[in-house]
Amino acid sequence: MNKQELVGTLAEELKKEGMAITKKDTARIVDTMLEVIQNALRKGEKVQLVGFGTFGVKKRAGRRGRNPQTGKEIHIPETKVPFFRPGKLLKEVVK
């Protein structure tokens, strides 16, 4: 499922619930939610959606590596990487 399909499905589900929200408004809601999550991660905060999972940022330590073309040893600098840890309910749904 891509983002456009997600927006369409979400709009249909909301319509079934009696909410008349257009696909355009639903897309804005999805975009805003993703933006809020990204901004929180940028600040180093966790975003925890109980039952669904937790978004966060981890530091990956610097290390030595090798250039695969030359075999020369290089230094790979420390970096931050985003992660997602699924919640208990999400794990049970996927089983």
TrEMBL record:
GO terms for cellular component: cytosol. PROSITE patterns: HISTONE_LIKE. The keyword DNA-binding applies. Keywords: DNA condensation, DNA-binding. InterPro entries: Hist_DNA-bd, Histone-like_DNA-bd_CS, IHF-like_DNA-bd_dom_sf. One of its GO terms (biological process) is chromosome condensation. One of its GO terms (molecular function) is DNA binding. The keyword DNA-binding applies. Pfam families: Bac_DNA_binding. Belongs to the bacterial histone-like protein family. This is HU family DNA-binding protein. It comes from Candidatus Caldatribacterium saccharofermentans.
